[in-house]
Each structure stands twice: as structure tokens, then as C-alpha cells.
Amino acid sequence: MLRTHQTLLDQMKISDAEIQSRLELAALSLSHFELLKDVLPLINSQIDSIVERFYISQLAIDEIAVLIGDVDTLNRLKGAQHQYILDLFSGQYDSTYVNNRLRIGMVHKRIGVEPKLYLSAISSLKLILFDVLDNSVVDTDVLVETKEALDKLFYFDTTLVFDTYISSMISELELAKKKTEMYANSLEVKVSERTVQLEELAKKDPLTGINNQRAMRELAGILLSSVARRKASFSLIYFDIDNFKQVNDQHGHLKGDEVLKVISECIRQHVRESDVPCRYGGDEFCIMLPDAETQSAQSVAERIVASFAEVYPDFSLSMGVVETGPEQHMSLDEMITIADKKMYQAKTLKGSRIIT
Ligand SMILES: Nc1nc2c(ncn2[C@@H]2O[C@H](COP(=O)(O)OP(=O)(O)OP(=O)(O)O)[C@@H](O)[C@H]2O)c(=O)[nH]1
Predict the structure, then answer these.
(1) Pfam families, from UniProt (predicted)?
(2) pLDDT at 115
(3) Class (C level, CATH) for 213-355
(4) Of 132, 215, 224, 328, which one is least surrounded by beta carbons within 10 A?
(5) Does domain 3-181 have CATH number 2.60.120.10?
């Protein structure tokens, strides 16, 4: 149930039995109730002057004057205090009385009245009430016992007010803890999302967006063991752009970058989902083709050459294609060494060439 749908008594689990036990702890008995009730007419007759005296004493304390702040608040407080003083002498210290005391504690906590100020106010009110009793109750025994009853009742009230202070502070702490936990959880989610993004980025070549050599090596291990298990073929295309240095030298680095991006796009367009293209370094590219024999790798290579030539008819590519499997499989480095040799063989010929 929402806190706002519960009384403070419910929130703080103060039952009638608990009230009874607290009254006993304060050593308050029915005879004390009667004594307090007996002086109600006397208190009632002087209530306005008691409230005035109380606020004169309170407003003399700067911290309290600042907290009260304005005349409307002061008048509202005077009204509440008027009722509180009459409640003190009502002789009825039941759940309604207790709930009102708890509310006072809550209000004090909310508006920032520190316990030391609350205690000083109680002490000041007690002195004023004692003074009234001293001046009007003739029977010395009754006077002493009434003052003792009032003293005990203030003690009873103070424990209630302090309990609301503590309960309210615990609620604030729990709320702060909840907020911190929520913040920590959201940070954890952000960090893990960012970690995934960074891991992805660390595997990509920033210029072309295809895998870098590191990612290719990681994936090669997985792909080669998969084809070995399935006794399948595995091909590799390795190539670079002929005289790429001249592109940079003659047309500038930006033009060179653009050519590298176009090649990557051509590769993307002509490989299968299961193939793994990669920028091996500089102007060298590598494509891993699981479950592909030389012939299908060669036709992929031809399609890349053709689409690149559509954009850059003056540039040529030198390619080496190597196949491994289906029974025995080479390592990635062994394949690259062979493909690299074939690529250099292609370079010795004019135009785009694919050596298988
Ligand atoms: N624009 C651009 N150029 C790059 C990049 N990475 C490497 N290069 C250049 O690519 C060129 C590669 O030159 P070489 O290794 O001599 O190769 P080549 O000029 O293609 O010569 P051959 O391989 O013999 O045909 C160098 O000039 C590098 O500076 C890049 O990210 N962007």
C-alpha cells in the first residue's frame, strides 16, 4: 500500500498495545491522566497568554524565528500549539493523540527543525506550564504530582516525535539507496553496451568499415575448425591495388582513401553472408570463403574486379586465390603465404589478374 494511504501510526506499526506499552514505559497511569484532566479548565482559561508567552520565548531564538519566517506561519503554528496544549490536558492519550504527535514530528523533520530546537521548545513550554500551575494550584501535593504527570507526558511525546524523525530519516536513506542502486544499474547497462560497441569498433577498419586483420584472425580460427570438422573446402582471396602509391602521390591521400572505400564496397556487394572480407593492411585485402572451392572463389574475385573496373577503369587489382580442404586444412598463415606469392605472380602481368 502507498505510504500516502496509510496513517503515520500504520506506517510506524504503532498499535493500541504499543501505545499502552509506551505509556507504561513513561510510568504514566490513569491517576496521572486524571490529574492532568483536572487542570484543563485552568489551562483553558489562560491558553492565549500561554501560547503568547511560548512564542515570545521561541521568537527570541534566531534559528527558530528564521524557520517560522512569516506572520501567517506564526499564526498557524499558534493555532496548532493552542490545540496541542489543550490535548496535553485532555486525559486521553489514545491513538488519535499519538498520531497527532507523530505528525508533529514529521512536520518538524520536513521543515528542518533540528531535534535540539524541538527539545528546547518542549523545555520552554514545560517551564511556562509549570509556572502557570505553580501560580494557581494551591495544594502542594497535587501541584507536585500534576507537574510530574506533565513531565512524564512530555517524555512520552518526545519519544514519539523522535521515532518519526528516525523513521523519516530511514525512509530518506532507503530512497537514496534505491536511487543509487538504480543509477549503478543504469551505469552497468551503459558500460556493457559501450563495451560491446568498443569491442565491435576494435574489430573494424575505421576507413572502410570491414574487419581488420585482428578480427580476421579471430574469425579464421572459428571458420577453419568448422570446415575441418565438416570436411569442407575453404578458400582465400588475397589482393592489392596495383601501384596504389601512385594514386596517393598523384591524386592525394583523400583520393586514395576513396579508392579503398570503393573496393570495400565492391567486396561487400559480391561476397556471401558467410564470407569474411577484411582489410589486411594498407592497400591489401583478404576474403575468407568457407565452403567455397577455388572455382567459386575465382568467380567472386572476377566479380569484384569487374565492379571495381566500372568505377576505376584505369586501376588494376592483383589477386591470388588459394583453397584448402576438404580433407586436410592449412593454417591461415600458410594460406596467406601461398596467396601472397600468387598475388605477386599476378603483379608481373599487366592489368587485373587472378592467379589460382
Ligand atoms: N590513401 C591511403 N593510402 C594508404 C592507406 N594505407 C596505406 N596507404 C598507402 O598505400 C600505399 C601502398 O604502397 P605499396 O605498398 O608500395 O604498394 P603499391 O604502390 O600498390 O605497389 P604494388 O603493391 O607493388 O603495386 C602506400 O603509399 C601507403 O602510404 C590508407 O589508409 N589510405
Answers:
(1) GGDEF, Protoglobin
(2) 85
(3) alpha beta
(4) 328
(5) no
